[in-house]
Amino acid sequence: MIKNIFKGIKAYAGTFKLINNLGLWKYFAIPIAISFLTALLIGVLAWALSDSIGSIIAKVWFWEWGSETFRAISDVMGGILIVALGLILYKHIILAVSAPFMSPVSEKIEHHLLGAAHTHRNTTNAAQLWRGVRINTRNLLMEFMFTIPLLLLSFIPVLNIVTSILIFIIQSYYAGFGNMDYTLERHYTYSESTKFVRNNSGVAIGNGIIFMAMLFIPVLGIILVLPLSVTASTTETVRLIKENKKLPLENASNKSLHV
């Protein structure tokens, strides 16, 4: 598991070079706009609703003394709660809606790595969008199921350190899942893809760790998160597919799965 996590992280090395060499930046314009607008909307909601959520949390404090302090803390907690849930929604929204744009990018990278003879494209843009919505809706529900109990436990001092790490790992896994599926959709069915990612969960987590970390970089992280994460996940997923299906490389002497 740990070894595969590092493989998922290491796959980010050389992504800028690969994107430039294949001229892929133009394909990211609309997904970047979607990413930016979604993040902006979540930020506005966090700012607007933090007081309301904070007032609800503050009701658990029945005592008069310290009520103002606890209310101030509650407002902050409300904002953090919205941002945490917002990050989950943000991730799955952009991964699902960007599917028709990211799948062709993944295909071009796979074509570069494996050659045209081993690149499959039996889906339409509508089919890719529907699969993206289906996969990410499923992942969203699963992530909420695991994350909400951990968020509630995170209000307990000391324990919140452990829950924060677990929440980050869970978010990373599902982020990596979504990125890997842009490649998997050309080779596996819906159920086969979920099994594939589950069997390679370390790679998904490694890819998602960088994905999630980039979201904490103001503006620039939101712009670059999809181009870099999708490129990294494609190179690593193609390698895994090659191992599982033993696909031969074309012109292997001139190409590498770790560009």
Average predicted local confidence, pLDDT: 82
Helical fraction equals over 70%
The shape is elongated
- The poorly predicted ranges are 248-259
User: What is the rounded distance between the termini?
Assistant: 23 Å
- Beta-strand fraction estimate: under 5%
H/E element string?
A: HHHHHHHHHH
Count of separate DSSP helical elements: 10
Number of strands: 0
- Rg, alpha carbons: 20 Å
Sketch the major β-sheet.
none
Structural class: mainly alpha
Transmembrane segments: 27-49, 69-90, 144-170, 209-232
Organism: Rasiella rasia
Membrane topology: Multi-pass membrane protein
Pfam families: EI24 (PF07264)
General description of the model:
GO terms for molecular function: high-affinity sulfate:proton symporter activity. Keywords: Amino-acid biosynthesis, Cell inner membrane, Cell membrane, Membrane, Sulfate transport, Transmembrane, Transmembrane helix, Transport. By secondary structure, this protein is an all-alpha fold. The protein has a domain at 2-30 and 99-245. Helix content is 77%, strand content 0%. It has ten helices and no strands. The chain has helices at residues 2-10, 15-22, 29-58, 67-97, 99-114, 125-153, 159-184, 190-199, 201-214, 220-245. Helix 7 (159-184) crosses helix 10. It is elongated and about 70 Å long. Mean pLDDT is 82; it is low at 248-259.
